[in-house]
Model the fold of this input.
Amino acid sequence: MDNLYCPLSMAKLTHFRSHDLTSRRVVSVELPEFLLRAIEHRLSEANRGASESERVTLNHLVERELAEGLSIAEVALLERDVPGISAAVSRWLDEIAE
Done:
């Protein structure tokens, strides 16, 4: 994979805003069709036989997938550049445990 295409500039990725890290923002991403189909399949599998209150949404799935790639060591390193991220991650983990 020598030539990876990423339309998102690194400047956008490395500029951190100083707002509440537990707040949420809407983002838009462009994905290849095969990934969308895979996500749809995972949602279908996760929701098979689930009650309305147990149903998984696309937001839930994407949030969990992204969070799984974030290690405790990385959070500790990020704390220097993104003060409060450790506390935000801890609150998020408490919320999903409920």
